[in-house]
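Reopening closed ticket. The problem is back. First fold of the pair:
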Amino acid sequence: MESPVADDYLKAIYHHTEWQDDPITPSQLAAVLGLAPSSVTEMVKKLAAQGLVSHRPYGPVSLTAAGQRRAASVIRRHRLIETWLVREFRYTWDEVHDEADLLEHSLSDRLLEGIDERLGRPRFDPHGDAIPDATGAVHREPFVLLADAASGHSGRVLRVSDRDPALLRALVDRRIDVGHELEVVSRDVVRADGVEVTLPDGAGGSVWLTR
């Protein structure tokens, strides 16, 4: 079932466990996709029948090996396109997510390979998310969510969630970007480039640092 709808489900399941270990529940999946729980239940059954997810009634949903490969392939497309748009077309990191959603299903494998080669086979997208290689493998450093980092912790920004464009813009205004060094002063304050800044709402759950 290689359809955009199925891909959206597989991507959501993949994303949920990418930066934490708890599997996604059907209700969480419905919330992420903005769909009715009954619709999600039916699609999960179809994906399970295709061997792409494993699921038992009222239990969490997990990707099978085949589902993992398919999800990684779609994620690879999406993140390469985001990187391409930023580097080649001067998009900002808060503008690329929706554009990549539109393009990820339309580019040929040949064009995608050409983009990957032209960009120098990048390992991370503009938000710090790992780009799976052609085999689906990813490489990450040990990380900690900013909200869980203790006062005094220093680390490099590894990843920033791309779900909220307004938050991305607010973080850039505060010198908080992928690759920048941060020191946690308190739950609401960090030191970025030597300057103490107050975190915007939602930042603690949207920024990951090196451990």
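Second fold of the pair, where the issue appears:
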Amino acid sequence: MTISNCFETLRKNHQCALIPFITAGDPDLETTAKALQILDDNGADAIELGVPYSDPLADGPVIQAAATRALQRGTRLDAVLEMVAKVSPNLRSPIILFTYYNPILYRGIETFLQQIKSAGVQGLVVPDLPLEEADSLIQPANKLGIELTLLVAPTSPKSRIEAIARQSQGFIYLVSVTGVTGVREGLETRAKELLQELRAVTDKPIGVGFGISQPEHARQVKEWGADAAIVGSAFVKRLAQGTPEQGLEAIGEFCKSLKTAIQNA
């Protein structure tokens, strides 16, 4: 199922998507594979999988620490894709790969896209991709059926918001806070205003992320009119606590509680 198809089905049923994020290779790739299956079984509609990177500008301390641990264990893109290729045929949820632009350029855009497509990846988020260079990735990705989602920041001016909305594929990723990812007590109301601004210029689905860490937050973004709640650090943190088995159990329960909150909104 493509990302677009996923949102189409949910919209028809007046539902909001839940998109968890985890870091590949933390604590190890075997646990990541199990985590993808558990999230899929417990209410995830799509799953963002972060490729560990040494200079993650958009990531807060929790995800940075997870990426560092994964890199120290020797986690590399080829091994991540090998794991995804084994797991993806068993998943209902499409996988969205979250990676930075440098590793893509280093590997070569065409080669990178062919490799992630072969592994079963359906979507791509590149947080440091300049809008002005987005076309160089969007066009070849489209040919392979990979949807490249672009981010709108709270600081984005209206003209840029419109340009991002036009080019973003699958959905539009609305960053709810100024700054990096991370667990926060509450959500900034600027996200609600931005949602309304985006709604005025596009009918594409809008996912809200960065700072959503509790079921009440997920419920709130649904009530604001978002098409998806994207939850990262809160999952990464739970998966890293205790033994891998305890971490897996914790993310399963948390995923279920978020989905219930969204459905009851």
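Update: turned out to be a display glitch only; the data is intact. Strands lie at 17-23, 47-50, 95-98, 123-125, 147-149, 151-152, 172-175, 206-209, 228-231. The chain is about 50% helix and 15% strand. Please close again.
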